[in-house]
Amino acid sequence: MEKISLRGVELFPFTSYDDAIDYIDSHKGILVAVNAEKVLSAATLKDVINSNVGYCDGAGVQLALRRNHCQPNACKIAGCELWLKIISRFAGKKSFYLVGGRQEVIEETVAKLRSEFPGIDIVNYRNGYIKSEQERAELLADIEVRRPDVVFVAMGSPKQELLMKDMLARHNAIYQGLGGSFDVYTGHVLRAPRWWIDHNLEFAYRLIKEPKRIRRQVHLLKFAWWLLTKQV
To answer: What value does the mean pLDDT of the chain take?
Structure first.
């Protein structure tokens, strides 16, 4: 499968969740969710995305792939769903390491996973508050020693991608950044209802719930213009 470049940000036009999981199973590296914000701020993470496995995680990017890059079957893959599908596929076959969230959240996440996926091999986990270079070094060393097959890092972008880049340099595995997915999984944060998700309006629902997000989303008008004028 060939990558598609959106203004220098390269991603795979996967056609389904299974398509993405099949690929990453045989091509280890960092799964990076690519949405309009990442394309707009490409300089920060472009090297990490382009040297790993970028995937479509946004309606705008999906439209760009379908309308402007002749990929009519390109699928929007939600990162907060993908990690659970990875676990569902590989629980009992691969080992897992989790990083992210508050201590309460990570403990609830691990407990829930062990309940929903009996026999899951979670080799270790820790919260996402890495307060010193020593803690960071200890985490990297632990990854290298325990050698998990899959590592999930829920710390927000670009922090999580830069940490996973350092992890990958120490140990070759499947990595995925999850943002706030542990909070959603444990019910501390509610995701948009299904109707909003199915109609590509999840961003609008989140904006209604968190009006302060307007500062982040107003610049997406630039991406919309690029999309309309086929500049992306």
So the answer is: 93
Within 10 A of 19 (CB to CB), how many other CB atoms are there? 17
Q: Coil, helix or strand for 146?
A: helix
Q: What are phi and psi of 201, to 5 degrees?
A: -120, 20
Neighbouring CB atoms inside 10 A of 84's CB total 16
Return d(Cα 201, Cα 218) in angstroms, integer.
15
Q: What φ, ψ does residue 3 adopt, rounded to 5°?
A: -75, 155
Indicate the range of 85-89, 94-98, 109-113, 210-214 predicted with least confidence: 210-214
Structure tokens at 44: 């920060």
pTM of the full structure: 0.93
Distance CA 3, CA 86 (A): 21
Name the amino acid, one letter, at 36: A
Would you say residue 214 has pLDDT above 70?
no
Dihedral over Cα of 169, 120, 12, 205: its sign: negative
CB-neighbour burial class of residue 200 (10 A; exposed 0-12, middle 13-18, buried 19+): middle
Instruction: Determine contact, residues 56/65, Cβ cutoff 8 Å.
Output: yes
Q: What is the DSSP code (8-state) at residue 27?
A: S
